[in-house]
Design a protein that fits this description.
Layout (H helix, E strand, L loop, with lengths): L6 E2 L15 E7 L4 H14 L5 E3 L6 E9 L5 H15 L5 E11 L2 E7 L5 H14 L13 E7 L3 E2 L1 H6 L7 E5 L1 E9 L4 E10 L4
Protein name: 2'-5' RNA ligase family protein
Pfam families: 2_5_RNA_ligase2 (PF13563)
GO molecular function: ligase activity
Length: about 210
Amino acid sequence: MSPLPERMTDHWWWRPGVRPGRRLYVWHILFDDQPEVVALAQRCQAMLTGISGLDLVPEQWLHMTTQIIGFADEIDETQVNAMCEAATKRLEELRPVRVSLGRALFHSEAVMLGIRPGRALDPMRDGLRSAVASTVRAHQLAGRNWTPHMTLAYSNQEGPAAPAIEAMREAPPAIDAVIRQVSLASQERVGRLYRWDRLAVVPLGIR
């Protein structure tokens, strides 16, 4: 997500296989149990309000995508249950992870907040990827690169990136956040919004 983009592009193109009503299984870190994270996101979004071409992510849909699994119509319930069991076993060996959240990140399709240390959540993600690979046949695990981030706004049109970058130049200070769990979501795209149902929660370090 570096260097800074010169232009924004439309995020809302249809990715391969994605279509209205088709659900995707995804592991997300959600923040509904951390009001300080939600408050930071809202302060940053207030700085972006009024900038043309940005869709701000509503509070209840703030998330950190951790691993896309695959399309729900290609993964049966037996595989989902096995994946959750495998993920629980792998993540119980870890401990909750304290990170600093608030580093402004920019992509041509989105404005985001990143974490430091940047690789702090890799062991958790590696455990999830291992659980998916061992239980799900039609998975989407190609590519290991991952920059943990919480999206504040998605771009919905072509245009210069400078207004968004300038708006975030005086962003609020980063805050500490503790990642204690990861959630399995059944997600779909509705218009210019990602929504989901939470199917399971897997904690870190339950032993």
